[in-house]
Amino acid sequence: MASERSTIFSLLISLLVLMLSTSFSGKCGAASMKYELQDEAEALLKWKGSLLQSEALLHSWSLPTANGSPCNWTGITCNDDGKVKEINLSNCSMHGKLDPLSFSSLPNLVRLDLSINALSGNIPSQIGASAYLIFLDLSMNELSGALPLSLTNLTRISVLNISDNTLDNQEGNPLLDTHDYMTKVCTSTLGYSHYCNW
Ligand SMILES: *[C@@H]1O[C@H](CO)[C@@H](O)[C@H](O)[C@H]1NC(C)=O
Ligand SMILES: *[C@@H]1O[C@H](CO)[C@@H](O)[C@H](O)[C@H]1NC(C)=O
Ligand SMILES: *[C@@H]1O[C@H](CO)[C@@H](O)[C@H](O)[C@H]1NC(C)=O
Ligand SMILES: *[C@@H]1O[C@H](CO)[C@@H](O)[C@H](O)[C@H]1NC(C)=O
Ligand SMILES: *[C@@H]1O[C@H](CO)[C@@H](O)[C@H](O)[C@H]1NC(C)=O
């Protein structure tokens, strides 16, 4: 039995050595080193390109970046797998819109803090694609229009702060029914003043 086992073992080792030497000496050995820009970095760069005066604020958001990853960029925090889990660009004088940000490219986003900026336009429906969001602070911007129905898809969200914007129909909006799925919500009740339910 023992010798049978060691024969199998040495066979496996030889096979492994053979596979390794083939892959290292082969013509295609360098292919795995090919630089690939991650979806996440690409999505963030596209958004940056749509913002005004973004170069001064987001100078670090540029290429080349190690492993095609945005993890070292200003305001970006990644999880252990190197995926973006947090974006914090609070109080960064950002002018622009949220629509050009591809939330579907950021499926691991857990915290998004874009408070105290000058972001305008709608809260895009696509925000529902970041299904793991727990914390969303868009307060003190110039966002307008209706709240997207896709907010109902953010089933894990516990803090939603959309106060101090000029969004429509917040009072009594069932999307903001905190008993349903959100534990903490701040909205604007009158003009720019804000009101939190906790
Ligand atoms: C991120 O920055 C730190 C220090 O600035 C550096 O040591 C590290 O290698 C960088 N990582 C990547 C992935 O660029
Ligand atoms: C974002 O950064 C600001 C300033 O550094 C900080 O006060 C705030 O707590 C951060 N937000 C989150 C969600 O961590
Ligand atoms: C925003 O940043 C400015 C300076 O950059 C600072 O004076 C102000 O206190 C900050 N506001 C908040 C709410 O952190
Ligand atoms: C919600 O946002 C407003 C405006 O930025 C801020 O004053 C308030 O403290 C925030 N509420 C919470 C609970 O974070
Ligand atoms: C919620 O997510 C489901 C599944 O991804 C999708 O089919 C649906 O359109 C989303 N709802 C809204 C209102 O975006």
Automatic annotation (TrEMBL):
UniProt protein name: Uncharacterized protein
UniProt superkingdom: Eukaryota
Lineage per the UniProt record: Eukaryota, Viridiplantae, Streptophyta, Embryophyta, Tracheophyta
